[in-house]
Amino acid sequence: MDTVTTTCPCPKKECENNTNCTSCRARHKANNNLPFCLREKTLNFDSNGVNISYTKTGEGPPLIFVHGNMGSNHFFKECPKLFMGYTVYMPDSRSHGKSDKVKRLNYNDMADDIVRLIEHEKMEKPIVFGFSDGGIIALLIAMKHPDLLGKIIPAGLNLTPKGINGFWRFCTRLVFTFTFPFKFGDKMRLMLKQPNITADDLKAITTPTIVLYGEKDIVRLADSQTVIDNVADGKLVIIPKENHGSYIQDNQKLYDILKEYLYEVSVE
To answer: Which of 56, 76, 92, 213 has the fewest CB atoms within 10 Å distance of its CB?
Structure first.
C-alpha cells in the first residue's frame, strides 16, 4: 500500500508537540474531543445554482463519505475521529441535510455535485466511500471521470430499481404513494425510477473499486457482482451477518472494514 505521512500543524498550546500529534491525539480522544487541527469545519459551495453543505476535518489524503437516501453527513459523525491522518469530507446531498432542496432529484446531478466539491477543494485523487445512493453516485463519477478519483468504495448499491429486493421495493412504492407530493415523495421516486446502469456502462470504470455488501442486505448481491465483473480493477467484500446499513451506522465497525482498503497513513 502507499504510505502517506502528514504533519500536524496545531497552533494551539493544547497540542503539546507541534510536529507530533500522537500523544495529544490520545489525550483528546480520551476526552471525547479532537485536537484543534482536526476539528470540524462546516462549509458550503455553489453547485450550478444549488448550495451544497459539507464538513471538512483533519489533514492528509482526501477521503469523501457520501450518505444514502433520506440521510445526511450525520450518518458518519464518528468518522473524523476514526480516520485520523486523512482530510475527511462529508457532504450533504442536495435535498438532504443542510444542502438546498431541489424540485426533482437525479443521481447524475448528485454525482456532479461531488465532482464540483472535488474541484472546489482542489483535491487530488480522493477516495470516495458511498453508502447506498452514495455508492451509486461513486459509480457514476468513476464512469464519467476515469482519471479523477484514487479509489471508490461503494456499499449496498443497486444498478437498477429492480436491484432492490421485491418486498423492499414494494415498501418504497407504498411510501411514495402516500408521501407524494409531500416531503419524502421525490426521494422515493428517485429509488423507483433510477439508477439505470448497464454492464457496458461499468466497463468505463478504470478506478480501483472495492464493493461492500452486507450478507443480509436488501439489495441484490447480483448487482454488486455485476460491478466487479465489468470494472477494470474490482474486488467484492461480503460482510457476514450484516444488513443494508448495520455496518455503516456503527462507524467503528465501518472503520475496521475500510482500513484495509485505504492508503496506509502514518501521523508524525
So the answer is: 56
